[in-house]
Structures are given as structure tokens and as C-alpha cells.
């Protein structure tokens, strides 16, 4: 069985996983931070590279009842020692603990596994093996710690998934490539933080949420900005990507960023079309329907946190008028089985969130909201916005994002 450690936005990460994995994967939630799956035949490294909302992927080794943890200490210890002895050179290993946030015995459990690690280190030294036990201030090792300490190639990261009934012992097989994500975010030639910039991880996640096969699908971003969505779609293997924006500078930035991406990934050959055109009039330039539209809409004027409620209501009204005209036009560009994944703004001011009535607006434009989460998932993952979207926010941000998956009404086919 395979385990997936989810990122900072578990509901979004699970939605991505559900969209990417085959239907027979049999997903189940073990706790609020991880998902288990059967029937995973795809290479772990390929899957890790594709997913942006999953931090680690690994293989389960053993399950123990939580109540008998201390009695099972010797067995757990032996399983790990036997595995580590397969490495001929210096052994480097570490532990990560994933528990529910409300786990009352977390400190006690953390102490137990720290002691276990020291015991394993001691027994390996007694067998004249050079060994290092990697620890962290956090209860779980980050991807950076795992990768920089060469745990996956010199020993292992052993993961303990804990809920109130059971403890699962697993071994990490892949971790997220933090350096590649950072390079695409901060190393590309053109970044425009002032106008609001979609993070590459969120862009990748949104492209994955379409559920489309990249090898035979066309993707459109009608508000392409500096090209983040197009870059991630290209890396996922989309053979035809189209970007448009009303701003000339945005298209220039997009072209520079895509050229930089292809130079750094010379094996990637993608057909790219770019237009300087507003979304409402894009049908003048685009004469064939597309398989999917993935975009972040205009998020409104910069937020200072000082606007009055009346001003906020006016901003909402202006945006809704713009969105209504825009999405009525964009619907006509989708194929009958097309999918639209869109990020809308959520304004945050004085500890209050201002949501837009997206559901009614987009339904009137001929779209219906697609529920991205599996029906059998526990309530702690069912964290949806008033309109049925999923929330993406960072600490300190004045504008969060509400992510939706839309499909055409049958009446619009």
C-alpha cells in the first residue's frame, strides 16, 4: 500500500490526488495529513514530479495497534534495523511523525520514537556500522532535510502515521523537489508581484484538477499574466497551450518565461500560441474550442486592509459585473466535455472574509460546479467555501484564492 503526505492545504492536495490517480486507486484517509491508496502502478518518482500538493510518497511496511505501541517496540526496531543493514556504506536515517492535530499524547509519542531512533543507532554501532540519526525541531522531517541529508539513498526516512486506533510504519520513497519549484518561482526572468502572481505549485495543482490527458488536450489561459499556468502545463506534457492577456507586457513576459523554460528543459517540445486580447473578445482570435481553461481571474485593485465595508462591497459589485461578461464569453470556447478550473479572489480584512457569489454567477453563464473531493472522505477534508470551492490562503495575505472546477451545463452543449 502507498501513502501520500499532503501539503499545507490538505483539501486541495486531496482533490489533486483524486484527479490524477486512476479510479481503482481506492483512496482512504488515515488522518488529516495523509492518504492511503491501493493499486498504484505508476512510478513513484514520476507521480511525485507530477503532483504539487503532495510532499512525500512512500510504502507502508507494517501496521500496529496504538494501544500496544510499547509492546511492539522490539519488532519495529528490528524491521528498521534489517532494512538499514541492506546499505553497505555509512547509514543515515531519520524519523517523521504524522499525527492528528488533536492527538493528546503527541509529546509522549514523539519521545518514544526519538528514544527508538537512539536505540537503533546504538545497535547498529555495536555491529561496527557507521551511522547517523537525523533529527529536527519539528516532529516531521521536511523535504529539504530528507534530500540534503541523502536519507533516501543512504538509509531511509521512516514515517509513523498515527491516529487513535493504529500506527502505520512506512518508508519514504520520494520527496518534493523543492529546488526545482524554487527555481521556477524565483529564477524565471519575469516576475510581476505587484499585479498578483499565481504560485507555480498552485498553478500545477489547478492544471491537474482538470483531469485531462495532457498528450491529447489543448489548454487555454485567458488571463495568462507572466505565464505560470502555461509553464506548468507545458512541463506536464500538454502538446498545445494557448495564452492570452489584454496587457502587451503580460504577453511579452509570458514569452520570455516560456523561452527560458524551454531552454532549461530542451526535451520539452510544446506548441504555444499567444495573443494580446481581452478574455471577452477572445473568440475573435480563437476559432476552435479547447479541452480546458485554467486561469486566475483579475483579483481586483491592490488591497491595503484599510478599505471600508462600503468600498469592499463596491469592489465586489465591479468584479461580479466583469466576471459575468467574461465567463459568458469563455463558455463558448470550451468543448462540450470541457473543464474550467478558475481561481477567484477572497478578500480578507479585519479578520473577516469577503466571498463572491460565484456559484450563482457561473451557473447563469452555463457552468456547473464539479465537486473535486471523493464522497467517502471524512468531514475534516470537506472544507469548502460558501459557493462550494476550495480555499487557498497564505498567512498574512489580504487576498486569498477560491478554487473552482466547472463543467458545462448539458443545456449549453
Automatic annotation (TrEMBL):
InterPro entries: RlmKL-like_Mtase, SAM-dependent_MTases_sf
GO MF annotations, alphabetized: tRNA (guanine) methyltransferase activity
Record protein name field: Ribosomal RNA large subunit methyltransferase K/L-like methyltransferase domain-containing protein
Biological source species: Candidatus Uhrbacteria bacterium CG_4_9_14_3_um_filter_36_7
Top-level taxonomic group: Bacteria
Sequence ranges assigned to domain Ribosomal RNA large subunit methyltransferase K/L-like methyltransferase in this UniProt record: 193-345
Organism lineage: Bacteria, Candidatus Uhriibacteriota
GO biological process: tRNA methylation
Pfam families associated with the record: UPF0020
